[in-house]
Specification:
Two copies of one chain form a homodimer.
Chain A (H helix, E strand, L loop, with lengths): L2 E5 L3 H5 L1 H6 L3 E5 L5 H8 L16 E3 L4 H5 L4 E4 L6 H8 L8 E4 L4 E2 L8 E2 H6 L6 E5 L4 H5 L4 E6 L3 H11 L4 E6 L2 H28 L4 H21 L4 H4 L2 H10 L4 H10 L4 H8 L7 H19 L8 H12 L3 H15 L7
Parallel strand pairs in A: 1-2, 1-4, 2-3, 4-5, 5-8, 9-10
Antiparallel strand pairs in A: 6-7, 8-9
Helix pairs in contact in A: 9-10, 9-12, 9-13, 9-15, 10-17, 13-14, 15-16, 16-17
Chain lengths: ~350, ~350
């Protein structure tokens, strides 16, 4: 049994209390200031307002101003705030961290870059605030299913084998399986970029809405292109392409194109709405759409990799096209279809007469 | 301009008249005896009864008893009958074939095996009846979208580069793109097996119907497992795994789990129906469910490959589990979940303390 503190009482933070409580840990769930209503409901023994599930018995819930109590002697810390809040929250809480044996982050994506600084993967951001080994999480994981103990398989990634084993051991249950990997970079690239690619595939749903005609063939042709591009970007960053073909890439992309705000942003763009308007309409409560931000960061990484000669020019046509749709008014239908063309051209064997 | 004869006036045969007519070919569409009502409707200038589209202008339609006229001097022949009818139809028509420069097959799957003979890929079956080079087709390609000229990207495969180039040239339009490949085996394995794996993923939809709880995480975890297994089986047969990760594998699997009888068979099994009852209820008009047959053939190939030492024991747990569900009353939910477990175990890095 370990003392585990989850930072963030949103959907995923709360959901992870289920496998942790199943394993008999001392679980503390801390809510940010924005989680006030959730914390109040949970403390009253009510359902989580969005997940519509009750917390497992024994989980302790702490409001924003009780972070010190929530974190006291925590051996495992779970970062489950939104990716754009990670730096803000950790800056505040870092002094309260005792020396956890592992920090697990379900927040995913990139940080930095706004001020011209280097783009960071979130585990590196977290490492600025703690010496504890950081474990990244990827894979198809709808919170409402995790919370209900429905079968879920994810990947945990770290280059610290000891901490990775500890984390896997803490979370793994008969209904929550974990594939350990040392490819943190591949895992994080896939986990972040699948949100961007889900926008692109969502555009096809919008084209259907706009034209009254299904665009399933186009959507399906974009899927392997998206996975392939995630793999190439992962490799360019020092990770492995195969990670993009697994749970964290192809698997997570599949759930992400089924529902959620990233897909919806794509659908609105495909329906003819201007990307800026669609993004701000969906960005309720000041949160950004994760895929929108990831497309920008990912595109910068892509351009940097091309400049360094690590990636070939035009090797990520779908990401490049998506970025031009989001920022330069490119025509979405044309851009997506051109990305498929490149896929065809990239096939190893060329017909000759 | 070429003389092109399409054998089979079903959905896909008829749909392919669209790119061919766009390219100005002399297109003849021949219907089998089972296509009688379709041929009658098309000859009366009516819509195709299932596709709900009119034929492009200039396409000639021939009933079953006018095969000789339909095939006279055909330079390109398209085999678009159901996979279990290929042998029957070609046995009858072989004497009528002049010497086509290419035979394209959109029928996919396996043949033979019932009598203990070796399992064949369909291009090999076709090659028994003609000396013409055979081109295999894979990729996400809903016929109703192809017929309407909506964007569709497919893969054409042959080891005859000349015939492949001719076929690509005949079919490629601004809305129908073609990636040529010499990996016929990989293409055919993926094209056939995606129907089997679509049953497995469809089971998750059935579990949702039965329990009232979504099983999106499980379904998404099975997707990369299915693609990976198609790649392993392709390799075992002498093809390339990367083909399974492209349009013909991952791409086609994505549309196949969206709709169609294979997915539906899975859904009924997941809902608690006995596989045999579900399969026979769906097998209207005497046609078998393609994925049901493919699971059987694929499983035999798998066992043969293990016996030969080309594949490791337990390397295709999802296919093996599906086969046990279909033929040996295995519990579908348990089988699928166990297949995900193996995926986790197969991940290269194992956690150690």
């Amino acid at each position: 049994m370990a003392r585990v503190t989850i930072l963030g009482a949103g959907d995923m933070g709360t959901a992870l209390a289920t496998p942790l409580a199943h394993n008999g840990h001392d679980v503390r769930l801390w809510g940010t200031k924005r989680d006030g209503a959730i914390v109040a409901a949970l403390r009253d023994g009510l359902e989580h307002p969005r997940l519509k599930v009750n917390l497992p018995a024994g989980v302790h819930v702490f409001p924003a101003n009780e972070a010190a109590t929530a974190l006291r002697d925590a051996e495992v810390v779970v970062v489950a705030v939104t990716s754009d809040a990670v730096r803000l929250v950790l800056r505040e809480l870092a002094p309260l961290l005792s020396e956890p044996r592992a920090v697990i982050t379900v927040a995913k994506g990139f940080a930095g870059g706004e001020d011209g600084a280097a783009i960071q993967l979130l585990p590196d951001t977290i490492a600025e605030f703690t010496d504890a080994p950081v474990i990244a999480v990827g894979g198809p994981s709808k919170a409402n299913e995790v919370a209900r103990g429905l079968p879920t398989a994810v990947a945990f990634g770290s280059d610290d084998r000891r901490a990775l084993a500890l984390a896997v051991d803490a979370f793994r249950t008969p209904h929550y399986r974990i594939a350990p990997t040392d490819d943190v970079v591949g895992l994080e690239i896939a986990a972040a970029m699948k949100n961007a690619y889900a926008i692109a595939l969502g555009v096809c749903d919008g084209l259907e809405r706009q034209t009254g005609l299904p665009h399933h063939n186009l959507r399906a042709a974009l899927f392997p292109q998206a996975v392939s591009e995630m793999g190439l970007l992962a490799e360019a960053m020092g990770g492995r392409a195969e990670t993009a073909h697994g749970l964290a890439g192809a698997g997570d992309l599949l759930v992400t194109i089924t529902s959620g705000r990233n897909r919806l942003l794509g659908e609105r763009i495909g329906s003819g709405e201007h990307p800026r308007d669609a993004a701000s309409a969906l960005a309720g409560g000041g949160t950004t759409i994760e895929g929108f931000a990831a497309a920008g960061f990912g595109h910068r990484l892509y351009r940097q990799a091309v400049a360094k000669g690590v990636l070939e020019e035009a090797s990520l046509p779908l990401l490049d096209g998506l970025w031009r749709v989001l920022h330069h008014d490119a025509d979405p239908a044309r851009v997506l279809w051109d990305a498929v063309d490149s896929d065809a051209a990239a096939t190893p064997v060329t017909a000759a007469t």
